[in-house]
């Protein structure tokens, strides 16, 4: 007859049970835990290093980036190796805005290597799910962004549409959009907003990076009759909120 130490046996069973129970640590987020917390610093460092490549563009080319609604594809194709990422602070702001509004449907104009996409997708994960539609016309950047999303375990939340945003965002959008990031070709901001405007829910937020490069966009969202409440945020971001019809006519 085999004798069993009941006390030790029960203890070992209890340990195995406890190990099988997922422990939720307070204040931890997808943004601040691996793999994303280790991936983002590397991507942001790469973006900062390649930002110096902007000096390779002539003054005329840099001005076209700011003003030309027709030459942007050729110019941005030249910058296919430039990360063109949002700042660290803007990335965190995007995460916070998406969490605070409990966003489930997000649209992004300008994926690049996916730094902003990762912040927004992390917020969707922590909100319990949702869908982020992003668009990028440079194929190599689409590939890099998808690799980064896969490395962060966030691919299931993001659809990256390859091609011109004037075409990719003209179809198959959510009926109600909670949050928008504009961070592609700056002269297109007004046209991109017009494509998605009818889908914006009342209270939807629009974040426009480097909005000062597009005076027409600023005039639109800052106009008292434009249907938005808008304010510059930090040095390079315009934060706008979609108003309802009653508010817009007051």
Task: Summarize it.
The protein is α/β, with parallel strands linked by helices and 250 residues long. The protein is built from eleven helices and seven strands.
Helix content: 40-55%
What would you give as the CATH superfamily?
A: Vaccinia Virus protein VP39
Give the name of the CATH architecture: 3-Layer(aba) Sandwich
Report the radius of gyration as a whole number of Å: 22 Å
Task: Give me the CATH fold name.
Answer: Rossmann fold
What is the mean pLDDT? 84
Distance between the termini: 88 Å
DSSP summary, beta strand count: 7
**Separate helix tally:** 11
Biggest sheet features: 7 strands, mixed
What string, H for helix and E for strand, traces the elements in order? HHHHHEHEHEHEHEHEEH
Decide which structural class fits the backbone: alpha/beta
- Principal-axis shape equals globular
Q: For the record, what CATH class applies?
A: Alpha Beta
What portion of the residues fall into strands of 2 or more residues?
Answer: 15-25%
Side by side, the strands of the main sheet go 3-2-1-4-5-7-6
Model regions low in confidence, pLDDT < 50 over at least 5 residues? 1-8
Domains (count): 1
Q: Your description of this structure?
A:
The protein has eleven helices and seven strands. With 250 residues, it is an alpha/beta fold. The protein has one domain: Rossmann fold (3-Layer(aba) Sandwich). β2 (131-136), α7 and β3 (158-162) form a beta-alpha-beta unit. Residues 1-8 have low confidence and may be disordered.
